[in-house]
Recover the amino acids of this structure.
């Protein structure tokens, strides 16, 4: 049969409609099924306002995020909105108001739960309790307990939405506690194994309380999440945090991320940091006849960029603008100037010597007259451009209130500390990497972690293993944070009660800042078979390698 042009057009339209309906049946719920959309954010770190970098479009910001959330709520049958923790620290707004505007904005957006990350405790339990009182949603910490204090977080909660009962728990990883915690809080909090905690709560929530789905909002590293995924199959969804996110979803059977999957089993998602994206996980859920047991039959995960093209939500925008104006009026005062750009970006200061690291370590050593000063790069959160410096910039660079401490260490303990400093290089930009004053060190990163220190000198003289050296550092490190457990065995400890930020403030008010890189931290590589020369590693390309030493000083333990 020969079709006319009109008949062919009708046939094409009909076939297209059939194909569209067939595709829809694979992603939309049938009458016996229902959908759930999980929206999630990660590693907020005070980024309530958009991120602004010269020459780049603005991204992130809670007002734009709110617009996205409201749009999705209008189109979705059921929505769950959660955050994986670390609301605090990272911006002047956060340092000054300590999370108050962020929590209020989350209230306006309708968050239903958040995990307690390690930074929620940075200002102590009393402040964390104040955040809990402000929040119109629960803060969760399933594997933390205390017999000495009431914690501002709870083990679990149950959310009902769209006819579904969803159990929520929150888990902190082994690599988080106690290294990254406020040292005083770590002393009164008990940490429990996240996998054992998850199994226990899964039994309680799914069997005793009959929830349809179990969602774990975690604050741990990706490898810990994947282990949880494999060992606790009762968890339907893991919403991760603490480290950089990824696009798509992961499963125990196929850990490489994929955007969409039928019958995925337990799955794991993690959106990007600082509110750059809003994580969206769409689930099609079927309840088995007779048992009422829910099963995820299809899942699709995407990270939605929060860009400047998204109009800000009026209510959230007004709230944050009010706080921004308060901050401007109270912190815009110029307190000094810098003659040079001082480098504090993560990818530099956590992997090599920088002029800002040298400046801060030198200020600390000079203040207390010690032989050595050690500053963990994790507390330095921004650079200082050349020119005027105001209070806002000061808060961005050093947002933490942790005070300084002096003590004495043996040369052997000093080497252990320096080994810890370089233990995660070159693969990770770890905050434990030390900026130093009064000593110089040469590392060989081709050697195994724990055996990388090749030479150390203090005031130009080789380090002596049994001699005691006076040291100034931060209380967080002095209490064993970031893996510096050797500091807990130090002698002659004195609490100085002065934050490093106050020393920088005093320096700014005294004279213009100036600092340079002088080679106090060096990296070498072992000579290859075709090249006998030692070359500096890429992590420290600003420096030249130290001249070879005819008789290297033997390091303790090597």
């Amino acid at each position: 049969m020969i079709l006319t042009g009109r008949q062919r057009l009708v046939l094409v339209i009909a076939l297209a409609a059939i194909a569209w309906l067939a595709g829809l049946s694979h992603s939309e719920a049938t009458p016996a099924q229902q959908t759930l959309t999980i929206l999630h954010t990660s590693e907020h770190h005070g980024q309530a306002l958009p991120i602004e970098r010269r020459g780049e479009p603005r991204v992130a910001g809670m007002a734009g995020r709110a617009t996205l959330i409201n749009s999705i709520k209008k189109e979705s049958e059921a929505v769950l909105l959660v955050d994986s923790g670390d609301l605090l620290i990272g911006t002047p707004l956060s340092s000054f108001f300590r999370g108050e505007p962020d929590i209020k904005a989350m209230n306006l957006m309708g968050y239903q739960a958040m995990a307690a990350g390690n930074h929620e405790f940075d200002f102590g339990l009393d402040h964390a309790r104040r955040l809990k009182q402000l929040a119109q949603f629960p803060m969760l910490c399933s594997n933390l307990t205390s017999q000495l204090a009431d914690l501002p977080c709870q083990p679990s909660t149950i959310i009902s939405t769209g006819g579904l009962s969803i159990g929520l728990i929150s888990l902190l990883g082994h690599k988080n506690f106690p290294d990254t915690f406020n040292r005083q809080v770590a002393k009164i909090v008990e940490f429990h194994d996240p996998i054992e905690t998850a199994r226990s709560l899964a039994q309680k929530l799914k069997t005793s309380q009959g929830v349809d789905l179990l969602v774990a909002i975690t604050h741990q590293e990706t490898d810990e999440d994947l282990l949880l995924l494999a060992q606790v199959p009762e968890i339907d969804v893991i919403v991760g945090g603490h480290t950089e996110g990824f696009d798509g979803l992961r499963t125990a059977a196929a850990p490489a991320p994929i955007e969409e999957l039928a019958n995925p089993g337990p799955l794991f998602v993690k959106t990007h940091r600082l509110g750059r994206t809003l994580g969206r996980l769409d689930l099609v859920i079927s309840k088995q006849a007779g048992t009422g047991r829910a099963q995820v039959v299809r899942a699709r995960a995407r990270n939605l960029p929060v860009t400047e093209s998204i109009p800000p939500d009026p209510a959230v925008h007004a709230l944050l603008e009010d706080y921004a104006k308060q901050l401007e009026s109270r912190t815009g005062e110029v307190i000094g100037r810098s003659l040079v750009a001082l480098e504090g970006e993560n990818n530099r200061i956590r992997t090599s010597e920088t002029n800002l690291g040298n400046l801060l370590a030198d200020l600390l050593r000079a203040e207390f007259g010690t032989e050595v000063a050690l500053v963990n790069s994790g507390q330095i959160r921004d650079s200082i451009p050349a020119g005027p410096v105001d209070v806002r910039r000061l808060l961005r660079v050093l947002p933490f209130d942790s005070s300084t401490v002096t003590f004495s260490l043996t040369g052997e303990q000093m080497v252990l500390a320096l080994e810890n400093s370089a233990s995660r290089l070159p693969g990770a930009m770890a905050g434990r990497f030390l900026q130093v004053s009064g000593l110089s060190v040469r590392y060989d990163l081709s050697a195994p972690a724990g055996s990388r220190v090749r030479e150390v000198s203090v005031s130009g003289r080789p380090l002596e293993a049994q001699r005691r050296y006076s040291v100034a550092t931060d209380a967080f490190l002095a209490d064993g944070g970031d893996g510096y457990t050797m500091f807990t065995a130090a002698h002659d400890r004195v609490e100085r009660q002065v934050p490093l930020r106050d020393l920088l403030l005093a320096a700014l008010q005294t004279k213009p800042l100036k600092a340079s890189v002088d080679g106090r931290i060096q990296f070498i590589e072992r000579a290859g078979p075709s090249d006998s020369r030692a070359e500096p590693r890429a992590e420290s390309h600003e420096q030249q390698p130290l001249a070879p030493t005819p008789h290297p000083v033997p390091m303790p333990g090597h």
Q: What stands out?
A: The radius of gyration is 27 Å. The chain has 15 helices and 26 strands. The domain at 30-324 is CATH 3.60.21.10 (Purple Acid Phosphatase; chain A, domain 2).
